[in-house]
Amino acid sequence: MKLTLMIILFSVVFQATAQEKFALYNDKIPNSINTDTARYNRNIPEIFVYKPSAALDKGMGVLIIPGGGYAHIAMDHEGHDVAKELNKAGFTAFVLKYRLPSPNIMVDKSIGPIQDAQRAMQYIRSGFPLLHKVGVIGFSAGGHLASTLLISSKRGFIANPSQLSLAPDFAGLIYPVISMTDAITHNGSRINLLGENPSPEQIAKFSSEQHVTSDLCPVFFVHAKDDKAVPIENSYVMIKALDKAHVKNKLLTYEEGGHGFGLINKTSSVAWLDSFVDWVNHL
């Protein structure tokens, strides 16, 4: 009897943490140059799929976009760790390894990441049709990429012959970079994405708060008030734009915690992911 219980428990745990890795594109990666270089090979986009146990599966998926200032990708504490916790809550989770913007391997480095985010949504919609809702969670610069995904559903950066929806059904933006404007942006993210001297048009194009419309999905924000790297004003300006467009949103603030804390803000007993899951369940 004890052996049977152990086998069952092991099976449930294994199902909740097992993951598979897939290439994001089946054919040529769009917007690519210098495909025979080491930099290109390091930046081949991939997606990691985490499936919950059948007993927990609620038929919803979440695309997870880790941060890293568009200079690296925090795949573990803002990616795989989050996926495992979402599995426990019954979500199918997808961790995105996106291309880091580089003029050495892209025709236009500013659109490489959003191409990969849109392709990830396309991959999920086509490959997992039983998911009745697909959301996104993005951290820091990954939050900028997630917010760009929200406001770009009608601007296709990839081929989409089946006209699948590339728009998430809900979103979590965790200490996100939102704006590229001088006053509140994270300068490193802006330089890496747009270059040292972006034009006013480029700044406006990639400032998500300037492109909010009433058809955006509900958005959940998490931000610490003492975040020095990405000021909380990034969340505030997006919330103001969402409120103006009458888009449902919620902000969970921490008094302390700074930036980049991932799943656990050690200064507080409030677990933001629990609040996010509860919020999604009541949408």
From TrEMBL:
Kindly indicate where the leader peptide sits in this chain.
1-18
BD-FAE-like domain residues are: 49-242
Q: Name one GO molecular function term.
A: hydrolase activity
Spell out the SUPFAM superfamilies in the cross-references: alpha/beta-Hydrolases (SSF53474)
Q: Which residues cross the membrane?
A: none
Q: Which keywords does UniProt give here?
A: Hydrolase, Signal
InterPro entries (UniProt xref): AB_hydrolase_fold, BD-FAE-like_dom, GDXG_lipolytic_enzyme
According to UniProt, the name of this protein is: Alpha/beta hydrolase
Species: Sphingobacterium kitahiroshimense
